[in-house]
Amino acid sequence: MGDRMKCQDVQKKLSPFQDGELKPKDQDQVAKHLQGCQACQEEFAKLERVWQALEGLPEIHPDPDFYGQVIKKINESYERRPLPGLKGVFHLFSPLTVCTLLIAGVLIGTFLGNFLAGSGLFQFRPTLTENSPKAVEVVSFRAFDPVPPGTLGDGYIRMVSNTEIQHK
Amino acid sequence: MNFPIRRGYYKMAFLRANTSCLSAFGDSLEMIDPLVKDEEMMAATAQGDEYAFEILVRRHQASVLNLVYRFIGNRSQAKDLAQEVFTRVWQAAKSYEPKAKFSTWIYRITVNLCLNELKSAGRKKLTFHFSNVEGAETGVEALSDESPSAEERLLAEERSRQISDALQSLPENQRMALILKKYDDLSYQEIAQILGCSVSAVESLLVRAKKNLYEKLISREK
């Protein structure tokens, strides 16, 4: 930048000049130019007028209990928030995920139950143990039988079968 | 931070660690040596030291509150948002790294919250309410130390309203750059860090902001 700056160049620099953001050398040159150039002085006066106008905006003061209100807000935010360790778990088990898992669980359970019951595997028969005089029947997988043992249906079928035998 | 604040619980820890910064007048926040850096306070806050956090809040509450107020233009909303800023500071204390000045960091949080607030409010135009009960108490008092007459007060209120309306009508980034320069006297470099843009972009924002504001003020006077 030479000593004889063009007005166009100066006017581009007036805003950073006002803010004190030019390099010291440029700052001095713009100041010198302004002393002898009325057009640039008028442009600079506009910026100064804006700056002065902004002085008129009020300043507000924080409430004396501002800090107390911040503390209250912080504690409220922790009350609303799940424990950090459980955060991921809650994200994992969103309502939609829970519903999907539940339906999938029932379907898979039914399929596996029917498959295993029909395959003949895991057919638990009544067993007698030395300590227990009564028969203990494990019905876990037979629960998927058409008529699971120990149910009302099973009782009814047994009763009917006995009646038919007696008739014969 | 994994814990809520328990008032007074951590106070003694900070006092023990910083006894040299306390005055002989006793345990008073105002007596803490202002030379104790914000970054040191923040490190103590990250350890859960409520006393250090309280000093940070008291140091920065006015500047944060006024930044929000001038940007949003609504006093009660500004209070809420300023409190939210400090809530975020507490929550982010452990992840804070003193790469930049603390004031730059907290202003960045403030700016982001303000922009989000405007977005969530559907860019609804908010204006200053100097004449309402809350705003009137400080709105005009700040203009003059002498007690003004009723007429002078009205004129000053009207003038303030015009200026604030003109300021609120500026685009968000121009408005924020102007407020940070005018009221917080930050350098272009600091403003660039806060707004997340280049220094030349800040210069350009300020040139346009001043030009726009001048035109708006002139048009309102006509």
First and last CA, distance of chain A:
125 Å
C-alpha-based Rg of chain B, rounded: 20 Å
The quaternary structure here is heterodimer
- Helix count of chain B equals 10
What is the succession of H and E elements of chain A? Answer: HHHHHHH
Protein model, in words:
The complex is a heterodimer of chains A (168) and B (222). With 168 residues, chain A is mainly α. Chain A contains 7 helices and no strands. Chain A has helices at 7-18, 24-36, 38-55, 66-80, 84-92, 95-119, 152-167. In chain A, helix 1 runs parallel beside helix 3 and helix 2 (24-36) crosses helix 3. Chain A is rod-shaped and about 130 Å long. The N and C termini of chain A lie far apart (125 Å). The longest helix of chain B is centred in the first third of the chain and has 23 residues, at 50-72. The radius of gyration of chain B is 20 Å and the shape is globular. Chain B contains 10 helices and no strands. Chain B has helices at 11-17, 38-46, 50-72, 75-92, 102-120, 133-139, 150-168, 172-182, 188-195, 199-221. Chain B is mainly α and 222 residues long. The model of chain B is unreliable at 6-12, 19-27 and 126-145 (pLDDT under 50). The interface between A and B is large, with 32 and 51 residues.
Relevant terms:
heterodimer; A: 168 residues; mainly alpha; B: 222 residues; 10 helices; 0% strand
How do the strands and helices of this protein lay out in sequence?
The complex is a heterodimer of chains A (168) and B (222).
Chain A: H1 7-18, H2 24-36, H3 38-55, H4 66-80, H5 84-92, H6 95-119, H7 152-167
Helix pairs in contact in A: 1-2, 1-3, 2-3
Chain B: H1 11-17, H2 38-46, H3 50-72, H4 75-92, H5 102-120, H6 133-139, H7 150-168, H8 172-182, H9 188-195, H10 199-221
Helix pairs in contact in B: 2-3, 3-4, 3-5, 4-5, 5-9, 7-10, 8-10, 9-10
